[in-house]
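ARCHIVE CARD
Drawer: 12
Card no.: 0347
Subject: one protein chain, sequence and derived structure
Cross-reference: see card 0346
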Amino acid sequence: MGFVKFMSSTAGRWLRAIVGAVFLIWGLTAGNVWLDILGVFFVAVGALDICVFAPLFKMPLSGKKVREQTK
């Protein structure tokens, strides 16, 4: 539960976006399309406030809704 709470927080969103940017840059420099796709995915879920791990813990996909439930 603590992991999902962190990943749905602002710090978790930033972490996902930064990891996505790293994968994106790495993929562009290495010429690896799969790293680029992974990077775009992580940047998108960070920017759109989507917590992809939350459904594994029977929580909503929306980061906002997870934060409301875990108050």
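Annotation on reverse: The CA atoms of residues 5 and 70 lie 7 Å apart. The mean pLDDT is 92.
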